[in-house]
Design brief:
The protein has 376 residues and is α+β, with helices and mostly antiparallel strands. 31% of the residues lie in helices and 26% in strands. The protein is elongated, with a radius of gyration of 24 Å. The chain binds zinc ion.
């Protein structure tokens, strides 16, 4: 068996540039690692140069747990902004490990591997599954291939953990994502004769004002851990030329949704209500809903066994976050999954990304204890 400790393992993972849609060599390295510790391992090729790695201990022993992390990273950005380390030449300085993906999430992936290695020779009563995915930050979202090709099923895993950097906080909920596109209709005219036309951009301003009112209403009903649903117009497109009253304007909304607001119907109703309100008081207001969608939030009940196990091990209360993870993909198919991993999201996607060695140790310790309680 290899002699790498968790820090060495993290360093090896960090040396692979997985920021540019090429994760296969890194995934292969993980498959070799998993085979070396005696796990059943598979390289799942999902696209040219892109692959997931899957490892299992105690295969067929019944519903255990899945730990799942992504091995791709965001791009490095301007390398000159990296003052402490080169993005792919990891170094340790003052108790921190630096490199692109140190906290998001090759460091956390190393803790999964190290915990499994330390327990590889044990007698498993339930199956342990480790998944390393591609395309989470870089595009592709290949965790879907893991799930659709049944590389992990609810028969193998009763629940799961995504060790995204949460400073080992237990994240049992995050919002779902949704949005809408609204086309506001006006009437073109020469800009010197605005009274002859209907200015679609001005009408869009009326719509945005009502969107702020909708937000004030949503703020009254926050989820205890996630806060309120939010509706934000993030793209506005309208107008043709400086001297033409614009005849159309499109608004794109990006919404973040709490429990009770999932599904496209709720978003659609919000948009319909605003359009109705405006057209009732202004007969020249005309708008069409081009699209409306809404994804489910993650909302794992506090009494779920994995939440309870982690609460006892870490001695802390679960929280909610605003960012989005692969936990939803597992939860949707019947594997309730929480987020709990070493390192801070504050260092994710930054120049001189790092993770503290202390967090890496805490990650290993926590996952070892979790695996012991669930699988041994
Ligand atoms: Zn991540």
């Amino acid at each position: 068996m290899n002699t790498l400790n968790v820090v060495d393992t993290a360093k090896e993972l960090l040396k692979f540039d997985t920021s540019t849609n090429k994760e296969q060599t890194c995934a292969k390295w993980i498959v070799d690692y998993l085979e070396d510790i005696g796990a059943e391992a598979e390289l799942q090729i999902v696209a040219p140069d892109r692959a997931n790695a899957i490892g299992k201990l105690g295969v067929g022993k019944g519903q255990g747990i899945v730990l799942s992390g992504h091995i791709d990273t965001v791009v490095t950005g301007d390398v000159n902004l990296w003052k402490i380390s080169h993005p792919f030449e990891p170094i340790i300085k003052e108790g921190n490990l630096y490199g692109r993906g140190a906290c998001d999430m090759k460091g956390p992936c190393a803790t999964m591997l190290d915990a499994a290695k330390q327990l590889a020779k044990e007698n498993y009563k339930k199956q342990l599954t480790l998944v390393f995915t591609s395309g989470e930050d870089s595009g592709g979202w290949f965790v879907r291939n893991v799930i659709s090709e049944k590389k992990v099923t609810p028969e193998e895993a009763k629940y799961g953990i995504i060790p995204e950097p949460s400073m080992m906080d237990i994240v049992r909920c995050h919002k779902g994502a949704g949005g809408a596109r609204i086309m506001i209709h006006g009437k073109a005219a020469h800009s010197s004769r605005p009274e002859m036309g209907i200015n679609a951009i001005q009408k869009a301003a009326d719509f945005l004002y009502e969107l702020r009112n909708l937000q004030k209403e949503l703020n009254k009903y926050p989820h205890p851990l996630m806060g309120p649903s939010t509706v934000e117009c993030t793209i506005i497109q309208g107008g043709l030329k400086g001297n033409i009253i614009p005849d159309s304007c499109t608004l794109s909304m990006n919404n973040r949704l709490i429990t009770g607001h999932e599904g496209p119907e709720v978003t659609k109703k919000w948009m319909e209500d605003i359009i109705k309100k405006l057209s009732d008081k202004d007969p020249t207001f005309k708008a069409t809903i081009v699209s409306a969608n809404g994804g489910s939030p993650l909302d794992i009940p506090e009494n779920n066994e994995i939440v309870q196990i982690l609460m006892k091990i870490l001695n802390r209360e679960p929280i909610g976050v605003t960012y989005f993870t692969e936990a939803l993909d597992y939860t949707r198919v019947g594997i309730p999954t929480v987020i709990c991993g070493p390192g801070s999201i504050d260092q994710a996607h930054t120049a001189d990304e790092y993770i503290s060695l202390e967090q890496l140790e805490l990650g290993v310790k926590t996952f070892k204890e979790t695996i012991k309680q669930v699988c041994l």
